[in-house]
Structure formats: C-alpha cells, structure tokens
Amino acid sequence: MASSVQKEPLVKGGHRRFPDKLPSTFTSSTMPCIYENTIILAATHPSITSANQTKDGWFISDFYAFNYLLKGQGQEQKWLTAADPEKLVQKYGPYLHGNPYEERKTCLDREMLDRNQLTPVTVVHSSEMIREFLDEAKRASELAKRTQAPLLLLVFCHGLPNHHLCLDDGNKSKGLSIVRLKAFLEPGARITLVTTACYSGGWATTPELNTTTMAAAGVKDDPYEGQSDAWGPSQSIGRACGSIFASTIFQTLSSVTSPMLDTRQSSQSSHQESLQPDQPTGQQTLTYNSFCQSVLDTCQNKVTRLSEYQHFTFSAQDDAWDFSWTGRTGIPLSYFEDRWKALKSHPYTGPEDMRALRNTDPQNPIFAIRDPNQTGGGQSGEDQNIIETMTAHIARGRTKEMARIFHSTCPGDWTKGDQVALSCTLFCFYQLDQQPECAGMIQSVIRFRWEAALLADLIVEMFVLPVPRQEICIMWDWHFWLNEYQQKTSTSRSEVMERWSTISMALEDSFNFPCLEQQGPRFRRPMYYVIAALIEAEKPEDETTAIIDAIRELLKDAQAFQNHRVYENTEVQRTGREWLKSIGRRARKSLSPRRRASTTESVSC
Questions:
Q1: In sequence order, what are the residues at sequence separation of 6 or more whose Cβ sits closer than 8 angstroms to the Cβ of residue 402?
Q2: How many other C-beta atoms lie within 10 A of the C-beta of residue 183?
Q3: Residue 475: inside a domain, yes or no?
Q4: Domain co-membership, 336 together with 396
Q5: N or C: which end of the chain has fewer CB within 10 A?
Q6: What is the mean pLDDT of the segment spanning 147-169?
C-alpha cells in the first residue's frame, strides 16, 4: 500500500453543489463501501413504432444492455418500457450495441428472451409513462431510505433544453421536470441518476435536486455540450446501436486494470488489479471522483477519438466526491467484463476502406477526424457546386439524390440525439432503398433545412460578417471552428461560450421558425452559424447589438413567410429561389448600407 494518499482535482464535468465548502483536490482512493441491496428503477420512452432501429431504437439498445448487465443485482428492479420486447424482436429483429465499425454486442433478441437472460420488463402506455415512473420512484425512494439502500435511476430518452426528460413518446414538447421528480422522491434517500438524455447536465447542476448524477450531455443549448451522441448508422441496415455514453460506462465497469495502480506498482505486480476487486483494499478502491475520471479516460482511450466532443456531466450527492464509487453510485458489484464478453458478438463486415476512414475507435491509426465524404471544403468552388446540384434536384423532385447529398452535409450533427432518427432514415432511403413511404417527409425536411441554411448565408453576407471557416452554413464544421478560433485568438473556451450564450439568448426566438412535424426536429445550425460569425466579427458591444436587432427584424419576414407556407401550403411546393429572393428584396430596405450590391443574385437557389 502506498505511504501517502494520492490527491487529484475535481473531474472535468464535475459540478460542485457547495463550492465554498469543498477542497481544491480530492483523494483518489478510499475504503470500500459495497451494497448488495441496491434498488434499480429504469425507464425508456420508445413505442413499438418509434423503437424502429432506424429511429429511436438506440435508446432500446441502451436500456436492454444495462438490463442484461444488472440482472440479478440488488434487492429489487423495475424496468419500464412502452414497447413489448417480444413484439420488438418479432418486428425488428435483434438489437445491437456499440460502434458500427467494430464488434457490436447483441443486447436483445429472441434467444435472450427465451433463455431468460434479461430482467422482465413492465410495459406501460406512453401517455402513462411519466406518471408510472413517478409512482415507482416515490415507492422505491421510500424503500431505499427505510432499508438504507442506494436507489439507482436509469433514464433513456430524449431531453429538452429546459432539461425535461421526454418519457412520453407522444409528447415531444413537454416531459418530466426536475421539480416534479423532486416532489416524489423521499428526502434523505441515497439516489443516483444515470441518463443519456440531451441537456441532461441540467440534472447534475440544478440546486433543486441533491442526487448523484452521471449525465451524457451538458447543460447549455449550444452545439458543443447540449446534446448527447449515439453511434452512427450501420452500413448493413442503417441502424444506430446505442449511445457513446453507455458504451463508455460499460467499458469502464468492465475494466480489467485499475487506474489506481501507478507505474511503479504495476511493474512490481505480476498481474493487473481489477477496478473493484472482490476483496478490495483502501488503495484499490476508487473514490467517486476517480471513477468519473476513469469514465472520461475510458472514453478517450477505448471508445472514441472524438472524446473531446463528449460533455459528460457529474455530480455527487452532498458533494461526497471522496466516497467509494460503489457506495456513491449504488451500482451493484458484478462480473461486468465476463457478462459483457458472454453476449453474442457481431463483427464489422463492410468495406475496409470505409472502416478505416470513419471508424473513430482510438486504436484505428488511419482515422482522420475530417471525413471528406461527410464535410465540406472552401466556399468558392465545392460549396458553390453543391448548392447548384441540390437546387437542381429540389426543382426536379429527385428525392433520393437530395437525400444522398444532404446526408453528406451538416458535419457533426448526425449523431446528436434528436438528429439520429433522421440520419438513419436518410441512409436507409438512399442507400438501402428502404422506407419509400418517407419520400414526402424527406423532401419537406431537406427543403426546409436547405433554405434555412441559405438564409443564414444571406445574413452573413448582407451584414459583411466573417464567414466561419470560409464554409457555407450547410457545410460548416463547428467542431473545428471552435478549436481554430480559440487557437487563433488565444481565447479560452469559457470566454467563447459566454459570448455565445449572450448572442444566443438574443437570437433564440427569431430563429425559431414555425414548421410542420414532418419537417423534422428543430434545426439549430443556421442560428449557430450566425452566432459564430458575430463572435468572429469582434465588434463593439453597441454595434453587435445593432446588428442583432436588424437580424431580428429580417427574421420576422422569414418567420411570416414560413408561417404562410406551413399553414397555407403544407406541400411546400415553391423552390428555395422564390423564398430567398423574397426575403432578400424586403430585407435590403432596412439593412446596413455596407451590404454587397449583388447579395440576392449571389445566392444560387
């Protein structure tokens, strides 16, 4: 055992509830605290329809992977779902989990059901899911306090910017709020919440809820931290197989080496210690803070090269970061590695060149973050060509060609929580000749988004703002923009995001265009693009405010025009050229005299 206690700072993404009372560093090991009476309550939202593996089926993959790993653990478990697993398997076949370019694991299939390898689930109607979850949470938290047991809450669903958890599959605009759940939880119960929802970081940072939280995303409604990530669609049937966050948790729990062992200890030992041995010593047992750091290290070293774009968020109930990770999280001790390895494997069988190019696994030496098939080049040539090509396809109603081109735009967007279903649908439509009934929806989505992105280009040009990365909106790579802007200006990420937040609040309502349900989830890219241009402009505050006010006036015209199209012409039959020319003509009357005279004519749509 080491003679001194190792100290480390609070984990990245960790939120202090009482910052004035906490030290600057925490111990990395502690005496073990192991519970065998954990109570587990889990819920996921997809119905039979939305649980399609090319829609929200990735939540089902997370749900059943956790179900399998935790089977038989603790004193009781309750798993709530809106979709009968028997019907899911019958309709969609097996559900897999993991990186589509690596070996994936089967987490739900006919054989697993027949062999009773999963904890039985309770099927609840979508409209009753939130009420049922709250009732169960109340009962479970009362039991947890009475028996001094940890309560582990697992929630797999979409999230909203106001931090609502969308457990009702039929209601995409309202969900379970922090305050409402708090009202049902027994005060003083030891509770951990693990959730893959977008904006779930709000559950870790809120002063309303004193729980231990492990969340897949951050708090803010921006492209960098707000949304959680799923794995991209597979090349075989275009399905998304679970979340990157869940894969990271599984890998961490299945770790065969302990981050607690330093180089000297490792070299003297004939074997590697486990993350949580059967008979742990104080030096072998991670604190919760160290466990969370292990999660981040695992994501970077074992799961994805794009780990810096994951914004996992953590909190500790009562700020007990120095407590044993098993005692703090309530995750029961089990042979996670053995159970995970026992699952049926599905190796990658697609083209090796595509795998080398797109596989983000840290062990892939060829992967270059920028995939030329998924991102755009400079504005002058390649971007102009894609505008003209797409405009021709839109005008002639060539839906498959529209889908193929559009899926190669919007770099960084397609694995984000609320965009995953659209990504899979597009891929299945143009690549696998499936879902022909979605042709009308695909046309509406693409036309709406294409025109909104071109409007953002128009705004940047009219106000003579810098063009972010010299890329048009639809091809703009916001991952690279942030890193490059920070390096170029020697500005910290927190400073950039503070300015981002201020501008975002001023423009939020103006970019909220009315749209049909069939035009897909909210499209934030145009607003993000304009925000980036305003940040790059680095104008004085009063001038920036004046530009924002003028943009808001311009967008009133755009909103009114789009409102007319939504309610008067639901087929959306006009071309982008008519809309943008109309907006351009009306906007020029009140915009800055520094505008370029050829603004409207330069838009090739």
A1: 390, 393, 394, 442, 443, 446
A2: 10
A3: yes
A4: no
A5: N
A6: 94
